[in-house]
Amino acid sequence: MEAKKIRRTFIDFFEKKKHHYVPSSPIVVKNDPTLMFTNAGMNQFKDAFLGNEEPKFPRVANSQKCLRVSGKHNDLEEVGVDTYHHTMFEMLGNWSFGDYFKKEAIAWAWELLTEVYGLDKDRLYVSVFEGDESDNLSMDKEAFDFWKEIVPEERIIMGSKKDNFWEMGETGPCGPCSEIHIDLRPDEEREQVPGNELVNMDHEQVIEIWNLVFMQFNRLSDGSLKNLPARHVDTGMGFERLVRAIQNKSSNYDTDLFSPFLKALEEKSGKKYGVDEQTDIAFRVIVDHIRAISFTIADGQLPSNNKAGYVIRRILRRAVRYGYTFLGFTSPFLYELCDLISENFGDIFPEVRLQKDFISKVIFEEESSFLRTLDNGLKRLDQIKAELSSKGEKVIPGEVAFELYDTFGFPLDLTSLIARESRLSLDEKGFEKEMEIQKTRSRAASEQEMGDWVSLRPDTGVEFIGYDFLEAKCHIIKYRTV
Ligand code: ATP
Ligand code: MG
Ligand code: MG
Ligand code: MG
């Protein structure tokens, strides 16, 4: 089954169960100071769960664009190294606002996975909250009993508070959850494991696909838990992981969600995917990052020097550097992948199709700008590495990381990544100190500025400063959802 059909089937399935389909909210969060990017399907329903807003429908379903690169959920370091954590991914979800609860949520999840998608029942495991004494919480017997009706008991795993109890924040709605995991190891490998029912959940082919959260408590500010007057269901399933399971692949990147991108990159670079591990990581990082960058720009967030904009710039520069070092791209290449984003995701997310040329132009400008300093920055870093090695030292000093940041546009996490590749570490505190010094310096300078005109130093060659025009254009091209 193709990815597009898999997504459609999810929505159809829940529509048949009287759910209302709601489009994805933007990936960039503009009205919540506690969150920069949407990181779960439930974000757009937060107010309904908090009781601040009357839900428009008792049951909804959607496919939400999520980004997990900052704050509580930051998967950036995993991306490309493993085969199932992405920066940007789609989270399929179904919700009940005070309507159905555990019984239906569990039965429907199972029905969809096994009967509609035809996943092998023997490969599925579920987890149930085991309880927590410190919080006076007993095990989620209700969920356990519903699961027991459909899954052999040895496939129900008890999970701790860390994995199986969800909380919105310090206070507010919370409750136990049940996760569904799938064991995608080849048959031969599974048979070699004695007592296969005690599956090793940490194996890279045993992955979590769906999380069913049952909100039934409210955490008060004194830490105590009260029963919620209305109980809710909030589920989230990683679409790319589901597609991988259905298409029976050993990596999300081998599904039709990513393979057109890998193919295009192979053609452009002349290198093959699947030959060398380090090159493969570069391939995976780039085809992952281009999605995050494109979707975020489509939602109105341009790369910039602070906050959400800097997160995007960091991701983009990370991709450029992977392409430069491991795939041999010395000129802009990412922007050319925008056509594929539009082709593959334009139906469900029309904003990427409508703004294709704009997205591609922004990426091109960013890439060009960073490529102008990347080579010199890397040479400078090589020099530092040689110096450190001659002294037998292993830590890149804060001043050097700051110089790379300030003069060559290297985000700290990029320098840190390159350092790790050479088995070096980085003095982050030293970097922060340099950053503070610079801020104080520029504050002092701006206090002295008297005239109307500030001269921009043209010699740094680091910052692309053509965004006024682009930014204006971005406001004109309004984002639309259907
Ligand atoms: P994991 O333990 O694998 O990091 P999670 O427990 O952090 O996942 P949840 O917050 O429960 O994930 O999100 C619901 C679902 O979203 C997960 O079951 C998984 O299928 C998917 N998911 C979570 N993080 C990612 C990611 N970075 N990339 C792709 N899918 C993800
Ligand atoms: Mg996680
Ligand atoms: Mg998990
Ligand atoms: Mg989870």
Commentary on this structure:
This protein is α+β, with helices and mostly antiparallel strands. It folds into two domains: 3-252, BirA Bifunctional Protein, domain 2; 258-447 and 461-476. It is 45% helix and 17% strand. The protein is built from 17 helices and 13 strands. Residues 449-482 have low confidence and may be disordered. The chain binds adenosine-5'-triphosphate (ATP) and magnesium ion (3 copies). One magnesium ion (MG) binds next to loops. Residues 179, 208, 211 line the site of one magnesium ion.
Output the keywords.
single chain, 482 residues, alpha+beta, BirA Bifunctional Protein, domain 2, 2 domains, 9-stranded mixed beta sheet, two-stranded antiparallel ribbon, 13 strands, 17% strand, disordered C terminus, binds adenosine-5'-triphosphate, binds magnesium ion, aminoacyl-trna synthetase, metal-binding, EC 6.1.1.7, ATP-binding
Instruction: Give the total of domains.
Output: 2
Major beta-sheet overview: 9 strands, mixed
The Rg value, from CA coordinates, equals 24 Å
Percent of residues in helices: 40-55%
Helix segment tally? 17
Identify low-pLDDT runs. 449-482
Would you tell me the structural class of the helices and strands? alpha+beta
Task: Identify every distinct bound molecule in the structure, by name, code or SMILES.
Answer: adenosine-5'-triphosphate, magnesium ion
For the record, the CATH class of the largest domain is Alpha Beta
Mean pLDDT, to the nearest integer, reads 89
Name the CATH superfamily assignment of the largest domain.
Bira Bifunctional Protein, Domain 2
The end-to-end span amounts to: 25 Å
Sketch the topology as an H/E string, one letter per element. HEHEEEEHEHEHEEHEEHHHHHHHEHHEHH
CATH architecture of the largest domain: 2-Layer Sandwich
Query: Which fold does the CATH topology of the largest domain refer to?
Result: BirA Bifunctional Protein, domain 2
- β-strand percent reads 15-25%
Number of strands: 13
| Overall shape | globular
